[in-house]
Design goal:
The complex is a heterodimer. By secondary structure, chain A is an all-beta fold. Helices cover 0% and strands 51% of the residues of chain A. Chain A is globular. The termini of chain A are far apart. Chain B is globular. The chains are: A mainly beta, B mainly beta. Chains A and B meet through strand 5 and strand 10 of A and strand 5 and strand 10 of B.
């Protein structure tokens, strides 16, 4: 069974860069076309797609975040990474990494999520 | 941006009852509509994709229907574990989520 685990600092200062890593285990990472995404959820609120990365390295970002978000893959470490620059309190959320079905945007495997708080 | 509006915001029902959840899109999303279930402190769980396809391992009491702008998730007979928040999501133009419907015990 595929398992995803997010990790990273729980507290980030305003204007700094949020950096998270998703480590994948229990599957053959990179052995078949794969589609990964980051979704976030502010405390007590709904879900927001941050962006996705496809097996060929193509990335897609939610337009409001496009200028600040960056997603990459390190296949040698079985990891997906997310960076969000110039964070504000509005970026405070639980961040989930997820793997999609082959259509790219229906997320079937999810990590447990990690809470990132932006505060001074 | 395609806006998804879910209704009702809260649905109060008893176990065994039928639940009908609605998701309306601000413009046509064809059949590119997905439903997730989320319980407190947990990640979302994929239930239905492409409007009516149940994901692997999802019980048959969950069914989805609709196309274009109007979609429905039906839970034919609520089990105790079905009380949760349900989100719809479209992938027709980028990816957006609805605000959620909370199904609570009456």
């Amino acid at each position: 069974q595929l398992q995803l685990q997010e990790s990273g600092p729980g507290l980030v200062r305003p204007s700094e860069t949020l950096s998270l890593t998703c480590t994948i285990s229990g599957g053959s990472f990179g052995s078949s076309p794969e589609y990964w995404g980051w979704i976030r959820q502010p405390p007590g609120k709904g879900l927001e797609w941050v962006g996705s990365i496809f097996y060929d390295g193509t990335t897609y970002y939610n337009p409001p975040l496009k200028s600040r978000a960056s997603i990459s893959v390190d296949a040698s470490k079985n990891q997906i990474s997310l960076k969000v620059t110039s964070v504000t309190a509005a970026d405070t959320a639980v961040y989930y990494c997820a793997r999609s079905l082959d259509d790219g945007y229906n997320f079937i495997y999810w990590g447990h999520g990690t809470l990132v708080t932006v505060s001074s | 941006e395609i806006v998804l509006t879910q209704s009702p915001v809260t649905l109060s029902l008893s176990p065994g009852e039928r639940a009908t959840l609605s998701c309306r899109a601000s413009q046509s999303v064809s059949r590119y509509l997905t439903w997730y279930q989320q319980k407190p402190g947990q990640a979302p769980r994929l239930l239905v994709y492409d409007a009516s396809n149940r994901a692997a391992g999802i019980p048959a009491r969950f069914s989805g229907s609709g196309s274009g702008t109007d979609f429905t998730l039906t839970i034919s007979s609520l089990e105790p574990e079905d009380f949760a928040v349900y989100y719809c999501q479209q992938r027709s133009h980028w990816l957006t989520f609805g605000g959620g419907t909370k199904v609570e015990i009456k």
